[in-house]
Design goal:
Number of helices: 7
Low-confidence stretches: 143-147
Number of strands: 0
Shape: elongated
Mean pLDDT: 86
Distance between the termini: 19 Å
Radius of gyration: 18 Å
Structural class: mainly alpha
Order of helices and strands: HHHHHHH
Largest sheet: none
Strand content: under 5%
């Protein structure tokens, strides 16, 4: 079996396991992510073009981390979600990681709207969204103000959004 098939199979297992644990306990275990990093780097080391492949993988990890880190900084998501997206980027490379991040943000937005609809916490959600967006629009000293404590609308299993998007992209890759 080619290396790319092993990588896709490993990515499939990773995102499914991450989504299940995120749904069950609202955490993405670091052990999953560490095993995935070892698998990717190990598979690339047995590949003949390992230097270019490892560089591409690390570039994807950097892109995933960089695009999700701002949401963690403003307390819009958990650190496990950022680490999961960096790990997914390790499998996909930079270009596909950008696409995955954008689609995941869309899927996460839909999930958030559904959660807010079912919990009927519209006013808390408005306060949260406002406190996330206003600091980004301010210029000068007020832009550095710390994020105030705000009422939680509930934790969202963002690992599920990452998994759904990744699985959709993998399906497109193998079914078309």
């Amino acid at each position: 079996m080619p290396i790319s098939t092993w990588l896709d199979l490993s990515l499939f297992v990773l995102v499914v396991c991450a989504a299940i644990t995120d749904l069950a306990i609202r955490k993405i275990p670091n052990l999953f992510l560490l095993l995935a990093w070892c698998a990717v780097l190990g598979l690339h080391l047995v590949d003949t073009a390992s230097a270019a492949a490892i560089g591409n993988a690390l570039g994807g990890a950097f892109v995933g981390f960089a695009l999700f880190l701002p949401l963690y900084v403003v307390r819009g998501m958990a650190a496990g979600d950022v680490k999961l997206m960096a790990t997914v980027g390790l499998f996909l490379g930079p270009a596909e990681t950008v696409q995955t991040c954008i689609l995941t943000w869309c899927a996460g937005g839909v999930m958030a709207l559904v959660m807010i609809l079912f919990t009927r916490r519209w006013s808390d959600a408005y306060v949260n969204l406002r406190s996330l967006l206003l600091p980004m629009l301010r210029i000068g000293p007020m832009a550095q103000a710390s994020v105030m404590a705000r009422p939680s609308v509930g934790s969202m299993p963002y690992g599920l959004a990452i998994a759904v998007t990744t699985l959709w992209l993998l399906a497109q890759r193998h079914l078309t």
